[in-house]
Amino acid sequence: MDKKPTRGAPLPGLPWADRPWTKHYSPGVPANLKLPKGSLVDLMDSSVRRFGAKTALEFFGATTSYRELGTQINRAAAGLKKLGVKAGDRVALVLPNCPQHVVAFHAALRLGAVVVEHNPLFTDRELRHQFEDHGAAVAIVWDKAVDRVLQLPADVGLRSVVSVELIPAMPLAKRLALRLPLPAARRARAALSAGKQSAGKPAAGTSARGLAGGVRRQVLPWRDLLDAGELKKRHPRPAPEDLAVLQYTSGTTGTPKGAMLTHANLQANAAQGRAWVPGLKDGRETVYAVLPMFHAYGLTLCMTFALSTGARLVLFPKFDVDLVLKAHRKSPATFLPAVPPIYDRLAAAAARQGVSLKGIRYSISGAMNLPAATVDTWEKATGGYLIEGYGLTETSPISVGNPFGPSRKPGTVGVPFPLTDIRVVDPQNVLIDRGPGEPGELLIRGPQVFAGYWNRPQETEEALLEGGWFRTGDIVSVDNDFFVTIRDRIKELIISGGFNISPTEVEDVLAEFPGVAEVSVVGLPRPGGGEDVVAAVVPAAGATVDVGALQAFARGQLAAYKVPRRVVVLDELPRSLIGKVLRRKIQDMLAAGR
After folding, report:
1. C-alpha–C-alpha distance, residues 119 and 101, integer Å
2. Are 485 and 479 a contacting pair, CB within 8 Å?
3. Which of 167, 292, 540, 542 has its CA 20 to 30 A from that of 302?
4. CB 282 within 8 A of CB 269
5. CA distances, 384 to each of 245, 333, 344, 358, 368 (Å)
């Protein structure tokens, strides 16, 4: 990618200023969408007023109404205020999908604070990088991750940790079943809870000593956060242009960095998503959150989108086929955002178990290529639509989608969303537009485009051009009907299970293993979509590399999805004339089995 600053260079006229793709929208989808005013706080208040008695959340069968959700958000906000959280502060969430995640997210926003989402399965190393970057003083953490968070060094500035147990949010019958002295109950309990008296479960108001540097931090249980009373009605409210969320992404290159998403960004993308599915009925839909809400895709399509429409949001702490099908028998899904492997596994399991998937009217897939066979199987099983969309964390995340209707084009990712402009340009000179059918870098402009990278002014300037155009780093082509097809990626990210993986981050870990002289990490396509992480390793002189031990070492430093599935030992890495490692050549070599 061209690294010279381009923000100040004016772009030529927009090639498709009249948005001709809107003629392919499904009936009822507006070409010019009127966006809601206000912040996500206003969005939540509106849903509480409109859908008060209706079910907002369902978790293992336990339900929370919109009115109850509003009360819990106010109480949690009062608790955070008592911990010293104020407007502009970052509040870190290290949580799987659960009711407390939704409450904590909106409670922090109510104070004008900025939510920072984290994968709760991240290692100490991965969490440390992000906490050092955003500097949150308060973290709300799954009890299984509390010990890892407490090991963060003193210089990250974290002073208070709220420990969240999942089991108390479940129905009484489920909680009792988990206490049974049976192997299956013990395994389920261990997967959901720390299951021991630890730093994650202290008495109220006590402190716990982190294991790094002897730093002392206040640790309190979630229930204490809710015991601070309700937040007074008169308090500062965030403005639409205020920062709402920091979502970490590898962006176009390098280590993960925080994409700054405003209230207006997230409000707009939820409204765009709602408009894209005109057949949805407010207050009558059931959305399944099988995607993690710490990911931009799950955050918008599962939480923000669902709650803005008064839907019943069924929460799953992780994707489990049997758990999803059990929930579907009781509260059938009507809208299911997911990734292709989830659709394949659900369809196959439902067929084996004799569970009908009829009634899932709308499904939208993202994060990886959607095979035609998956679409065919899913639509036969559900009687509904499965379409593919495209987006990035920096676009909140969705910007392009196939219509829910006969105008869709399988094999493409669709056309731009309402109020979204695109252009396809020469990656080496963004002033030169590409014509229909010609490959080029995709630029996106719209109300969902982020505000920049946290504390990264240079990267922000490189990614955001004058006029709000975002450089995606993806090579695409646009056909004569303005449908977008993804051709390649300028960036060398690996996409596995819908998550972006920075090769550099994995390489830095593997390079620390004894006996490794050089390493290059690439992604190789899987038959069913997505990529496998594969490492090419050159041993140091006189050394040998134990592949199994290297992978075990990586598992201690990286989340499981980042650990290389294959490690190939090479005599040397292919390089350019200037000595740069040629990742593409390595990909080609490994794909060909050489």
Report:
1. 12
2. yes
3. 167
4. no
5. 33, 11, 15, 8, 21
Would you state the torsion angle of the CA atoms of residues 196, 197, 199, 201, taken in this order, to the nearest 10 degrees? 100
With beta carbons less than 8 A apart as the criterion, state whether 251 and 394 touch.
yes
Q: Which residues contact 137 (CB under 8 A, 6 or more apart)?
A: 84, 85, 89, 90, 157, 158, 159, 160
For 442, the token pair is: 């995709």
Per-residue tens of pLDDT for the chain, all 594 residues: 343 334 445 578 889 999 999 999 999 999 999 999 999 999 999 999 999 999 999 999 999 999 999 999 999 999 999 999 999 999 999 999 999 999 999 999 999 999 999 999 999 999 999 999 999 999 999 999 999 999 999 999 999 999 999 999 999 999 999 999 999 989 999 999 987 544 444 444 444 444 445 578 999 999 999 998 888 767 778 999 999 999 998 654 557 899 999 999 999 999 999 999 999 999 999 999 999 999 999 999 999 999 999 999 999 999 999 999 999 999 999 999 999 989 999 999 999 999 999 999 999 998 888 999 999 999 999 999 999 999 999 999 999 999 999 999 999 999 999 999 999 999 989 999 999 999 999 999 999 999 999 999 999 999 999 999 999 999 999 999 999 999 877 777 888 877 888 888 899 899 999 999 999 999 998 887 789 999 999 999 999 999 999 999 999 999 999 999 999 999 999 986 556 788 888 988 888 876
For residue 323, give both structure tokens. Answer: 């758990």
Classified as helix, coil or strand, 410 is: coil
Q: What is the 3-state secondary structure (H, E, C) of 130-181?
A: HHHHHCCCEEEEECCCHHHHHCCCHHHCCCEEEEECCHHHCCHHHHHHHCCC
Task: Report the alpha-carbon distance of residue 474 to residue 252 in Å, rounded.
Answer: 9
Distance, in Å, from the CA atom of 552 to the CA atom of 535, rounded to the nearest integer, reads 14
Q: What span, in angstroms and rounded, lies between the C-alpha atoms of 263 and 112?
A: 10
Distance of alpha carbon 520 from alpha carbon 517, whole angstroms: 11
Segment holding 386, helix H or strand E:
strand 385-391
Q: 337: which residues sit within 8 A by CB, 6+ positions away? A: 287, 291, 297, 298, 301, 302, 363, 364, 365, 366
Task: Tell the residue number behind the tokens 């498709």, with chain if given.
Answer: 16
Q: Are 290 and 336 in contact (CB under 8 A)?
A: yes
Write out the two tokens for 353. 């178990």
Q: Position of tokens 């299951």?
A: 195
What's the CA gap between 324 and 314, in Å, rounded? 9
